[in-house]
Amino acid sequence: MSPAQTILKDVFGFDAFRDGQDDVVQAVAAGQNVLAIMPTGGGKSLCFQLPALLRDGVTVVISPLIALMRDQVRALREAGVEAGALTSGNTPEETDAVWEALEAGRLKLLYIAPERLSAGSSLGMLRRIGVNLIAVDEAHCVSQWGHDFRPDYLRIGELRRALNVPLAAFTATADAETRAEIVERLFDGQPPQTFLRGFDRPNIHLAFAAKNNPRQQILSFAAARKGQSGIVYCGTRAKTEALAQALREAGHAACHYHGGMEADDRRHTETRFQREDGLIVVATVAFGMGIDKPDIRWVAHADLPKSIEAYYQEIGRAGRDGAPAETLTLFGPDDIRLRRAQIDEGLAPPERRSADHARLNALLGLAEALHCRRATLLRYFGETEVKCGNCDLCDSPPEIFDGTQPVRMALSAILRTEEWYGSGHLIDILLGNLTDRIREKGHDTLPTFGVGREYDKRQWQAIFRQMMGHDLIRPNPDRHGALQMTEAARPILRGEAQIDLRRDTIRDAPRRPAVKALVSDEDAPLLSALKAK
Ligand code: ADP
Ligand code: MG
Predict the structure, then answer these.
(1) How large is the angle between the packed helices 457-469 and 350-367, nearest 10 degrees?
(2) Is the confidence at residue 532, as pLDDT, over 70?
(3) Of the listed ranges 28-37, 100-109, 375-384, 415-424, the one predicted with least confidence
(4) Atom 16, ligand 1: residue with shortest CA distance
(5) Is ipTM > 0.85 here?
(6) Where are the beta strands (DSSP E) in 258-360?
(7) pLDDT greater at residue 292 or residue 370
(8) d(CA 275, CA 114)
């Protein structure tokens, strides 16, 4: 047995390395600069903890969350490894104990909160104690536009230069831009040895559903999994509270979690979730990085996540123990509008915005996928050989039809109104509804007026959503979200390309009773008279 395997078994109690761990451990132990990209739950911590024990001196670990550091230090100590943390959460006694172990040369791993790096004294201290390796956990926090940016992470590059020791960076964020930013900021642009471990999480079942009655959809999903630990992600704080309440009323143990809560309350919920079996946490994205619960059995999205990366991270919290786990992601046109608006109203520079739109598009493409979701998801991360059989589309392949004709109708309505309108007005044109606005604009004379009566309003909304999913149309932020065509739509409009649509999401679009659409409030007495007959 190699020394690494002996430690794996004797100290960590594992029989074998997981996929990819072995190679990373070897490279880090050999003192190379390493960037390891491994999925959530892939076992990244071991990839710096084990080499720390193989090398002389102290390994400094930089990690973004105090809770994460504490958990790891506790687990290491229980395994008999000398580890300590210097964070603002320490008691003076804890800090003294860390210093003592350091001065006595016993300490193998020293966890440091990134904000400590800006304290001038830290560098001098780290110089003295014989640091032999810097490990950076959640290295994507160095990415300025990422969702977890930590300004203090920007000091890590400086630290590496000052100490002149190897650096190993770990993240689950696969996307190429973030990776390039990590290399730039942590390694001064000198490419480290990079390991990219497969992103497939075959035990996680993937499913999406069009949002029609979201509260009921989430309640039934939870009811079918009663007694199992789960997370429901919501787009707003208010919704987390309302939905947690609804779940409790349905007899579940559920609580809410969001960034607006007191730190103590948040910590309380985190601990409860960690310890209790079968608790449901209804949360915003604030709930996540610090959660290391291996047996989360399901994750549901009551609202569409903001990007394909966010989706992958969030569902990835389920089933870390490798046992089957379920997911459900709801999406509707309002989600798409909201996410677009958030990107456009954000502070990011224009080039960043278009990247964010592209990531959202990738997620919409996944939501409206015609074939296997796992293959679609992993293709985005650059993997081509994907075996699935564990997603809703593999369970029951959707019925597909040639949607070229309705898509061309919609595109032509967009073009003939010069890309100045949203889907509501465009659908009125397609349905031939003589609204005031149609009359005022003279749109009842357009050749597309009334050509789409084969479908009703909801069905047209489903078609527009699928068109967005295929990135044929996009809301234009400079025109209050009016729909514009993309390059991808031109061959279809010219009759040079064909487009498949899913029949189910169009057919099952909840219809409003037809009569209701025809009457206004003034007709209500007439309607009830008709009904009474
Ligand atoms: P990551 O940081 O990549 O999300 P962690 O380091 O938190 O993953 O590890 C996830 C879980 O996998 C932990 O419970 C850890 O103890 C376990 N684990 C790590 N390596 C192994 C292994 N070789 N064999 C079995 N379990 C492992
Ligand atoms: Mg981790």
Answers:
(1) 120
(2) no
(3) 375-384
(4) 43
(5) yes
(6) 280-283, 298-301, 325-331
(7) 370
(8) 28
Q: What is the pLDDT of residues 430-477, one digit of tens each?
A: 999 999 999 999 999 999 999 999 999 989 988 998 898 788 988 787
Answer whether residue 518 shows pLDDT above 60.
Answer: no
Q: Are 319 and 297 a contacting pair, CB within 8 Å?
A: yes
pLDDT tens for residues 153-188?
999 999 999 999 999 999 988 677 888 999 999 999
Please indicate whether residue 173, judged by its CB atom, sits closer than 6 Å to ligand 1: no
Task: Answer positive or negative: Cα dihedral of 158, 164, 170, 176.
Answer: positive
Query: Nearest CA to 186 among 121, 117, 140, 119?
Result: 140
pLDDT the model gives residue 260: 95
Q: Ligand 1 atom 25: the closest Cα is on which residue?
A: 14
300 CB neighbour count, 10 Å cutoff: 28
410: pLDDT strictly greater than 80:
yes
pLDDT in tens, 114-136: 988 876 667 788 888 889 999 99
Name the residue among 392, 274, 280, 243 with its Cα closest to residue 329. Answer: 392
Residue that is written with structure tokens 């996928």 in the block: 369
User: Which of the listed residues 7, 22, 46, 312 should we mutate to test ligand 1's pocket, taking the one with most ligand atoms within 8 A of CB?
Assistant: 46
Please give the full DSSP string across 451-519, using - where no structure is assigned.
TTTTS-HHHHHHHHHHHHHTTSEEEEGGGTTEEEE-GGGHHHHTTS---EEEHHHHHTSPPPPHHHHH-
The dihedral sign for the CA sequence 3, 26, 52, 5: negative
Residue nearest to atom 27 of ligand 1 (CA): 43
Q: How many helices (H) and strands (E) does the chain have?
A: 24, 18
pLDDT over threshold 60, residue 527 = no
18 lines ligand 1 (CB under 6 A): yes
What is the rounded CA–CA span in Å between residue 51 and residue 56? 10
Residues whose beta carbons lie less than 5 angstroms from ion ligand 2? 44
Mean pLDDT confidence for 209-229:
95
First to last CA, the chain: 87
> Residue 340, Cα to own-chain centre: how many angstroms?
16
Q: Which ligand has its closest atom nearest to the C-alpha of 137?
A: 2
What is the distance in A from the centroid of ligand 2 to the CA of 35?
Answer: 14
Inter-CA distances, 126 with 107, 121, 160, Å: 13, 9, 11
Cβ-Cβ contacts under 8 Å for 398 (sequence gap 6 or more): 370, 502, 503, 504, 505
Task: Let me know if 422 is exposed, middle or buried by CB neighbors in 10 A (0-12, 13-18, 19+).
Answer: middle
| Under 8 Å between Cβ of 327 and 207 | yes
Q: How many other CB atoms are there within 10 angstroms of residue 189's CB atom?
A: 10
